[in-house]
Amino acid sequence: MLRMGSQGNRTGWLVLAVLFLLILLPLFAVVIQVLLPGVFFGQFKLGNLSLLLDVFRRPLWYVSLKNSVILGIGTTVFATIIGTAIAMARANWVFRGAKLLDFAVWILIITPSFILAQGWVMFASADGLAAQWLGWHSLHSFIFQPVGLIVVMTLSKFPLAYLTVYSALEWKVDRLSEAARLSGGSSWTVWRTIQAPLLLPAICSGAMLVFMDTVGDFGLPASIATIFRFPTLPYSIYSALYTSPIRFDMAGALSFYLVLLIALAMSVQLYAMRKSRYDFLSSRATRSEPRKPRKGGIYLVIGNLVFLAVVIGIPFGSNLLMSISGSSSSSGKGLTFEHYRALFAGKNDALLEGLIHSLEIAAVAAVIGLFVGFLVAYVLTYSEFKLRKTIDVISLVSLAVPGIVLGIGYIFIWNQAWLEKIGLLLYGTPWILILASVAGVIPVITRVVVGAMAKVPRQLLSAAQMQGASFWQRVTSILMPLIKGAMLYAGLAAFGASVFDLAISSILYPPNFMTLPVVINKAFEDLQFGYAAAATLTGGGLVILIIAVMELLIKPSRKRVKS
Q1: In a domain, 48, yes or no
Q2: Of 335, 369, 386, at which residue does a domain stop?
Q3: How far apart are CA 150 and CA 215, in angstroms?
Q4: Which helix (H) or strand (E) segment is 287 a member of?
């Protein structure tokens, strides 16, 4: 047992060092850049902290902060309300199309926001599909304003609130509601005074996820910028790095405020729940079973279909229609596949190169991330390492911190002259993209693998060690065969997420090394909507095909194991 503890400590320190290098060090670099500007480029001078106050004096900085706060709060309120309402309806009632709703929620979660935003731009722009095909000319003025952008973001982010609340509704204790009804409470009173307060942790968690994902979103402002100027903190950070001269001071200060907003959101959640207890489940708890509504079931079906037509049909349908529409389709020239033919034409080699680069980076990042995530999960599940909680928190930090901030930190860390002397000058090479992608996928991989490891008893590994099996023998002969399914799904999820990471790619892609998200976004910025849509669907379809083939390849091995 002492030997197991010693080995667990060694693995724990190794994991802690890797996570510090990949996640914490870049975030510390952003803060240090504010306190000591230029320190990463050989200039040792104390920073002017009044720079942080310039956000209230410089128009662009102030507008960016204000827009991020407005967009974050507005989206959080409406997405939480919609997600909670839909989750309760889904948990309580059976209706046709419910499975389609579940499928749509996951599609919205895994689809990059810039693809969803591009679909809305194609639909609602002045000469877009809504105006040309449906005659909705006023939709343009509604969507491309702060309220309209909140609506678009709400329809993209509500799945985060939906999933957290829906999972909390898996179990119920009817005696609480029954006691309230026996005391004369109406259905509304029971929900308001009992059910809703007990869901407060889930509602707060969903709201926090929505807020963090919204204020750190780079895809929507990057796509909307082609039609409507709405600077946010992530987009202004990106602009600071692509102006002449490069404004590292501006990027650092705005990144500081972006992290501050996320920290405030987490603090609000903790404050809301610190004085109450919500552990109400007991032995009388039963699994929630949705029931058929006594009346009005048809309205649930119709409402669900209309809702799906908006949240899925508009962004994805717009991409599909624009991809098969001619360059002058708005003038009624019909449908064509010219954009798909142009994808791999000789003059458009950038797309093919970008696609290959993105697939290569995603594959390497998934393999490395799977190795790191496995070690993190092992330490969290089986070791007695005293800093396990710290590792758990760090592994979740990159999920909360926007990719644009992480990318800034990587520039500060890996763009230093002295690193060239030891061969570690990673800035300007594909390796910095790989490291940043690994940092981004670690939370996803860790959560999936931890769930699988929790089902494997520690006694199996202890018994093997007592027989003289080494660490790697225990892992390869016992643990890996039992969790290989989870490892595969974690790796495929990491692969798919890395391919379309626009924030990391836009900040860190090397010169003459285009990636698929950058190619698509540049085509969209050049108003080549049909080409961008075709590239999006082609790239996404190829990624889905790769994931499906990988899943099929392991099915025979599963059958052999079962037999």
Answers
A1: no
A2: 335
A3: 12
A4: strand 286-287
- For the chain, what percentages of helix, strand and coil (3-state, to nearest 5) are there? 75, 0, 20
Number of domains in the chain: 2
pLDDT, tens digit, for every residue of 173-232?
566 666 666 677 666 676 666 666 777 777 887 888 889 888 888 888 778 877 788 888
Q: Using one digit for the tens of pLDDT, what is the confidence trace for 348-366?
A: 567 788 888 999 999 999 9
4 domain-assigned? yes
Residue 431 CA from chain centroid, whole number:
22
Domain-embedded: residue 547: no
- With contact defined as beta carbons under 8 Å apart, do 506 and 347 qualify? no
Q: What is the pLDDT of residues 29-73, one digit of tens each?
A: 877 877 776 666 666 666 666 667 777 888 888 898 899 999 999
Same-domain pairing of 391 and 288: no
Task: Report the distance separating Cα 36 and Cα 422, nearest Å.
Answer: 25
**Six-digit token pair at 226?**
């082609």
Terminal-to-terminal C-alpha distance of the chain: 35
User: The pTM is what?
Assistant: 0.76
**pLDDT, tens only, 488-537:** 878 888 888 888 888 888 888 888 888 888 888 888 878 788 888 888 88
377 and 281 in a common domain: no
pLDDT digits 0-9 by tens, 451-477: 777 777 777 777 877 777 777 788 778
359 and 330 fall within a common domain? no
Write the CATH number for 318: 1.10.3720.10
The CA-atom distances, in angstroms, between 118 and each of 123, 221, 322, 558 are: 9, 10, 11, 40
Claim to verify: residue 404 and residue 489 sit in the same structural domain? yes
Question: For residue 435, what are its two tokens?
Answer: 């490291």
From CA 169, how far away is CA 89, in angstroms rounded?
11
Same domain, 402 and 313: no
Q: Distance of alpha carbon 173 from its chain centroid, rounded?
A: 33
- How far is residue 384 from each of residues 1, 36, 255, measured CA to CA in Å? 11, 38, 36
Q: For residue 219, what are the contacts with CB-CB under 8 A and spacing of at least 6?
A: 112, 113, 114, 115, 116, 117, 502, 503
The tokens describing 74, both together, are: 């507005």
